[in-house]
Amino acid sequence: MSNEAGIATTAADPAPETEPAPHGLGAALPHADARAKTEGTFPYAADLWAEGLLWAAVLRSPHAHARIVSIDTTHAREMPGVRAVITHEDVPGTPRHGRGTPDRPVFASEVVRHHGEPIAAVAADHPDTARMAAAAVIVEYEVLDPVTDPEQAFEAEPLHPDGNLIRHIPLRHGDPDAVGEVVVEGLYRIGRQDPAPIGAEAGLAVPRPDGGVELYLASTDPHTDRNTAAACYGLSPDRVKIVVTGVPGATADREDQGFQLPLGLLALKTGCPVKLTATREESFLGHAHRHPTLLRYRHHADAEGTLVKVEAQILLDAGAYADTSAEALAAAVSFACGPYVVPNAFIEGWAVRTNNPPSGHVRGEGAMQVCAAYEAQMDKLAKKLGLDPAELRLRNALATGDVLPIGQTVTCPAPVAELLRAVQDFPLPALPKDTPEEEWLLPGGPEGAGEPGAVRRGVGYGLGMVHMLGAEGADEVSTATVKVHDGVATVLCAAVETGQGFTTLARQIVQETLGVEEVHVAPVDTDQPPAGAGCRGRHTWVSGGAVERAAKMVRAQLLQPLAHKFGMSTELLQITDGKITSYDGVLSTTVGEALDGKELWATAQCRPHPTEPLDAAGQGDAFVGLAFCAIRAVVDVDIELGSVRVVELAVAQDVGRILNPAQLAARIEAGVTQGVGIALTENLRAPRGLVRHPDLTGYALPTALDAPDIRIVELVEERDVVAPFGAKSVSAVPVVTTPAAIASAVRAATGRPVNRLPIRPQAAVVTTQ
């Protein structure tokens, strides 16, 4: 970035011309809510208030596995200020819920299956009273031995009526007897990452005069949450409304439904508004985490390094309930070989229930775990063959037209080799100086590093891939309405702004299509048609596509009278900077003049092409689109202390089309930083199923001091022809790729295998004889 020097002016100097504000696709518009968030005026769910408000608290299990002998709410009900106490007996409708599989009880009734599972909820006139009343509920437990090792889940007694096995995918592709001249094996473990949202869960429930209820939540999928709540409350969906409040960031399914459901039950029971704000501990215990994973791999290659066969076993620990584990397993098995051409692949994947904390959708689920393993295998293979790790990857890189191990042909742009060459050719950072003034550059931070002579630099590579939108037959559809009146456009779409920039993108689409500068995006609630969950880049693709189609329909309404008047088709008219002109210059007017006080509006849907479930052999066209990333990591490792400093991460990514340069760069940098946490610090430990240190002190998130220099060295704009605008999702694939690249660099620095994430200090220590 360049800094412009200030220029002094006098009164006689002409005033500088004001540059027109950037708008439309390709412009670096700031987030629509950036100013409000910066000034502290953005309305988050925790800021909600209502007249006659009651406060809620939830009693959660202190055990990972126990039989409930009895629940006594007498003392809690008798406390002054307590208005209601509810348990499983007070759920009038469906007693189970779940994001993917509805197998989780609203309140535990007979058995507790994980630490922190809800058992009762209280509404009172003060938050302290609510918490004390929840603590006064007496629960008698018969503590049971928890099943915390996912490998033991196959032989253990069923932890759930549906059994311990959630899904098994056996992938069979090619010749099972194929053997390579060179074989490498590895066993890998991935820890449990928490999404750690910047704000803990909060919400407000308000009863309605018709016996229904309105929920004000930071939901990322309001229509699914409404349908779940209605079923739980025994109400029809039209009597439950969800209004989306400010979402304080989301890198996963933002809301724990087990948090939402008691809120509405209490409001219906008391007839009063009820607010619930989770503590950070409750947030850690309640929402889903990234699946801890055990992976066994065997790679076969010929003497030149060409992959012949990949064999793998992948075991996902789903925790106590299924959630979205079936979908995560499909991604893990499908991408188990990575963005490489593998003619023969035999993968076994399982997702099982345990008494560990619940697992579910976290950005890049399934794909991140296998990326760490297959890239470690590629490093082992390169070392055994005496090849440069980057060269080995280039020899096997996937390209458009190749076939994935699931049998699906890659039809989207897949510039994997180009991405890898870009980061490989990017200049390496300078070495740190051995002076006291530069000690902060060494691993461990200020005054925390060992001797400079113990520091080794390593360079490693990672290639990653993710799928976009839902998979295996998921019906991805979104609806949007665009209205224009008095020169102002309004977009109505139930796509939730989670920080991915959808509201800004919607403004840009309408500005470019209609030439209207002022565009507002209406708040989201379930009175609007559904738009689906805010994950896997789906709102850029599906909801952005719906907005574009609706805007083009309004454009046709706007231009048709003019085209008819001048005897030409609407295709011969263009809108630029708020002006409508014809190809021959005969017609020139403004959008405002063409509107002439009329209100125009249109509603449209966007639905991508269908996919299909994986069959019994793990084969099928399961994915709508794919995105790829290459990262080169440079690390400094203190081989005596095992401390690691990530010096630089060079990123190259295929993005399809750049819609907003500033937002795109921010999303990539955020994804990379989240990947640094997975690689080095983040691991929610739960010995015997009990979450240890469920707070932001015990759970080590990377801070600004941990963030390395992130160099976005190339963004490949090869448009995906089946995607609206040709754009691809950008935030998940750097999360997937970064941990693998960092682990590769630590291997290069230390010569150690590094087969576990996060990387523990002892794994980076080199013992000298």
Structural class: alpha+beta
Oligomer: single chain
Largest sheet report:
7 strands, mixed
- Overall mean pLDDT score? 89
Organism: Streptomyces lucensis JCM 4490
Region (Disordered): 1-28
Domain Aldehyde oxidase/xanthine dehydrogenase a/b hammerhead: 39-145
GO molecular function, one term: oxidoreductase activity
Features:
Ald_Oxase/xanthine_DH-like; seven-stranded mixed beta sheet; oxidoreductase activity; six-stranded mixed beta sheet; 769 residues; alpha+beta; AldOxase/xan_DH_MoCoBD1; Ald_Oxase/Xan_DH_a/b; disordered N terminus
Describe this structure in words.
By secondary structure, this protein is of the alpha+beta class. The chain is built from 15 helices and 29 strands. It has a 7-stranded mixed beta sheet with strand order 3-7-1-14-11-12-13. It has a 6-stranded mixed beta sheet with strand order 9-17-16-15-10-29. It has a 4-stranded mixed beta sheet with strand order 18-26-27-28, with helices on both faces. α4 links the parallel β12 (about 215) and β13. α8 (about 365-385) packs parallel to α15 (about 730-750). The longest helix has 28 residues, at about 540-565. It is globular. It starts with about 35 loop residues before the first helix and ends in a 12-residue tail after the last strand. Residues about 1-20 have low confidence and may be disordered.
